[in-house]
Each structure stands twice: as C-alpha cells, then as structure tokens.
Design goal:
mainly alpha; 3-stranded antiparallel sheet
C-alpha cells in the first residue's frame, strides 16, 4: 500500500467517523445503535478499524470487507505503533471514552503520512 493510498483511506475514515458517528464493541452500528456488518447499507457508525475498512471499500481499494484487513494491514500496523504497540486497535478503540481520542490518533497519523510524502 502506497503512502498516498494510506493517506486517502485514513482521511476518509476520519471524515466518516466524525460525520456519521463512532462505535464501540462492534465494527459498525446502525442509526439505532445495533451491530451491523461493515459493508451493509444500514451501517453508519464505525469503530476505528470499521471506519478504515469501510473507507477502503468505498474508495475501491478492495472489494469485500473480509479481505480488507489484509489490504489495510500496513495502516493498522502503523497505528498500533502510535498507540504503543502492546494493545490491539479494537481493544484500544473500545477503551476510549469518546470519539475525540480516535480522531486525534487519525489526525496524528495523517500528519506523519503527509511528512513522509513531502
């Protein structure tokens, strides 16, 4: 995955989560807060990983949610390093009190990628 693709997916995920809402304890949730599949039309709120997967799907970087974790694994590896490397991203997401920490992490990663691309 190129730096440009990482930037594209991460920016899209940040916008998706900020605009539509954030989820915990599920990759995706419906408007009513019920768990949903990432690729489902009724999915509108996403956790950190769910937002990255859905963004990669929306951008056409991959076709199905079940293959996305492989496609976006370089992003997941980089984000794991930013949070200290000892906690799974899903667990980290679920431990946050609100969306702000997730958005700050994504913004930090975007800044790092922009420096790398310059």
């Amino acid at each position: 995955m190129t730096t440009a693709e990482k930037l594209q997916v991460t920016r899209a995920a940040s916008n998706l989560i900020e605009k539509n809402g954030w989820a915990r304890d599920s990759y995706a949730r419906t408007e009513r807060g019920l768990p949903s599949l990432i690729g489902s039309e009724d999915a509108c709120q996403f956790c950190l990983m769910g937002g990255l997967v859905r963004s990669a799907m929306n951008l056409g970087i991959q076709r199905r949610s079940d293959e996305t974790l492989v496609v976006i694994s370089p992003i997941l590896d980089d984000l794991k390093k930013l949070i200290g490397g000892e906690v799974r991203l899903g667990d980290w997401n679920d431990r946050q009190d609100n969306v702000d920490d997730v958005l700050v992490l994504l913004e930090k990663y975007i800044e790092d990628l922009e420096k790398e691309a310059a």
